[in-house]
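Researcher: Let's try something more involved. This one mixes different molecule types, so please make sure each is placed in the same coordinate frame as the others.
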Amino acid sequence: MVAQQAFPNGIDVRTAKERRAEALQVLEDHLPEQVRTGAVLEATGVSKAFGGLQALTDVALAVGAAQTTGLIGPNGAGKSTMFDVLNGFTIPDKGTVAAFGQDVTQWPPWKRAKLGISRTFQANHISTGMSVEENLLIGTHLCLKGGLFQTAFRTPKAYATERSARQAARAVAHLLDLEPLMTVRAGVLDFGSQRRIEIGRSLLGGARLVLLDEPTAGLDAVEARGLLELVKKLQIDLGLAVLIIEHHVRSVMNMCDMIYVLDQGRLISSGPPSVVRMDPQVREAYFGEERSV
Amino acid sequence: MNQMKTILSRYSDALSPNVPWWAYAVTAGIAIGWGAIASPSWVFLTTAAFITAIAALGLLVLVGWGGEVSLAHAALVGTAVYISSYAMRSDGYGWPFLAAGALGIAVALALSAIVSLPTARLSGIYVMVLTLGLQVTIERTIFTNSKLSGGVESRYVTRPRFLGISFDSNVAYYYLAFGVLVLTILGLTLFRRSRHGRALMFVGTDRRAAAAMGISPWWYKILAFLIAGAMAGIAGALTTPLYRSPPTSLQYISLQSLFLLAIPVTAGFESLAGVVVVALIFTLTPHAVASIGQVSPLILAGAGLTLGTYIGPGGFSGAVLDVLRSKRESVVLGRKRQERQVEDDVDSMPLGVVAQERA
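Model: All components are placed in one shared frame. Result:
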C-alpha cells in the first residue's frame, strides 16, 4: 500500500523529508532499543604503559546516554589509546571499563560489539574490493541470524533476516547519501564517501554507543563540517550515544554535550563545552599560552 | 510456479552482475560438449584439471578470502587420497565410494582444524612454517605407511556407482567431476555472499575493523582452514577412482603444495572461475605443447607465482573483472557526479533564483 502511494505510475513522489523519515524508521526498527538515561560507558582510573612510555595515567570518563561526548587533546595526548582501551583492543594495566552496566575491562572487541559498542578508525578501514552495499552489510553481521549452511543456502528464516538487513543498509545509505552507489566498489569512491561508508557500517552493527575516531581526518573544511552535522543529526534522531575524537575543536565545542580533554596521557579538564572552553589548562595545552579555544 | 520464482529469486545474486547470462550458458555448453567430443585422453586430463581446481578453490578461500596461507595443501589432498582409497579397497574396509570419500574428507578436515588452532596467535611467516611442518610430518608418516598408500604394489579401486548411475567410463567420470566442481563453485559463491562469507572476507582484509564489528577473527581464520581442508578432502576423494589406483606420494610432496598455491595466486583472489581457468591451463598446457617441447607444470606454477605476486591480489582475473566492472561503475559514478553538479549549481544560486527555478 505504501509502495503504491509512493510510486504511482512508477514515479517516486515522496519528498526528501518523507524519504529521510522512512529511512530513519527502518533504521530505528533495525537498531536495538536505545538507553535514554544515565551513563552508557564509564572508565575509571585507566592507566596504560607501553614499555617505558606512560600513554594513559588514571583517566576517568563517562559517556552519557543519548549524548555526544567529545575527547580532545593535542597530538600524542593518548586519545586513540583511550579509544583502544574502551573498545577492547588494549587491556589497561590499571582501571576498569564498564559498558551498559557490565564490567567489560577484559572483554575482546567482538564481545563488546555484541553489547552495542561500535567504532570507526582514523584511517579508512573499509574493504575497497567490496561494493558499498557489502561494506555496509558487514555492519549487520551481529544482527543476522543463521549458521553457515542456513545463510549460504538461504533458508526462509535466514533469508528473511538478510532481507531486512539489506533494507537497513539501504536506509543508512540513503541517510548518508550513498544510496545510488550501492553496487559500486568502495575503492573507486572518494575519501569522503569512504568515510561515510565506515560510519554507516558502524551504525548498522546494532549500535547503542558509537566511538568515532577523528571522522573528519583527511577531509576539507566544507566536507568536515557537513559530516559532523550529519553525525550530530543522526545522533539526535536515533538517540545514540556518541564518543568522538576530533581535531576541529570549534566543531567539537558546537556539537558535544560533554567534553574530556587529555594531555600527555592525563585528563586535564572535563565538563560541558562552556566550562572546558574557559579552562586555562586546556588553553595552555593547545596553545602553550592563555588564549581562547 | 510463483513459489518456484520466489525461491529462485533468493539465489539471483549467485550470478555475477559483471558477467552476462549468456557467458554462463556458453561456458556450460563448452564444458558439457567437451566431454562428448574430446578424445579419451583429453577428457581424462580435463577431469584431473577439474579435481585440481577443486583443491585450488580451497586455497583461494584460505589465502584470498581469509588472508592466511598454507603450504600443506598437497599433503591434505594426499591424505584424503590414501585414506579414502584404503576405505574403498577390497583389502581395506571395502566401503562404497560415498562413505570412503566422506572419511577422507573428515580426516583432511580434522588435520586442517588442528593446524588452524595455533593461528590465533600466529601470523604470516609463522603460519607458513607451521603448515610446512604439517606437510613434512604427513609426508613422513601417512605417505610412508605402505598399508595406506599400497606401497610398491598396485592397489585397484573401482569407479563409483550411485543413484543408479555408473561412473566407470572416462566420460561419465568427467561429468561427475564437472558436477562436483560446479556445485563447489555454487556453494562457495553463495557462502561468499552470506553473512559468514562477508565476515571471512573482511577478516582477511582488516582484522582490527572486523573485530570492532563483532566478528571474531580467530573463529573465521579457523573457518577458512576448515573450508580449505574440506576442498582438499573432496579433491582427494575424487582422485583415486580417476586413476583407478592411488597415485604415487610424489604427487603430494611440498612442491605440489606450491603448485596448488600458484593457481589462486596467478588467477587472483576475486574470481572462482579464474581459478578453474588457471587450473586447466596449468594441467593441460604441458600436454598440449608436448609435440613441440617439454613444459613442466611446475615451471608454469613458478612463473604464475612470480607474475601473480607482481600483479597483486587481483591477479589476471582481477584485470579482466576491472574492465567489466569499470564500464558499469562509470555509468553510476557519472550519474552521481551530474546530480552533485546540479546540487552545487543550486547551492551557488541566490535564493530568489532557486525559488524562481523551482516555481
